[in-house]
Specification:
about 150 residues; mainly alpha
Length: about 150
Amino acid sequence: MSAGNLDVRAPAPARPDLLRVLAEYLPRPLRFLAVGGIGLTTDICVFTILIGHSPRPLWMRLFSLAAATLVTWRLNRALTFDESGRRQHDEAMRYAAVTAVSQGTSYAVFAALVLTVCAALPQAALVAGAVAGAIVGYNGHRLYAFARVRRQ
């Protein structure tokens, strides 16, 4: 094949990521809630599957919470919060600290409810815990984990 037969076109311009474009039009709290909704769906689905195999809701919630945390971390990094200006490792450590507090809050509320008034419907305890954890998490991520570096 000669060089004259090669199809030499300029590369097509990159298509913008439609999810990213949509996310930029939503206020940050709504993006956080949308990501949280996906995380909550992940949490409930994994929890419900696991609880069907073991009647130990406190243990099963640890696994479902871990799965939901992985999902929300990636989505929050991509869609909710802007670049902080920190090294990725530093930002990850801050994210882990906030997540430990917010997921600890979520788990504590879940445990208190599932061992008392929500024993028959552990998913309701899961949702209540998720709401409490989301309030703590949003403010912690906004004010600490993904806060922009202040230049002096």
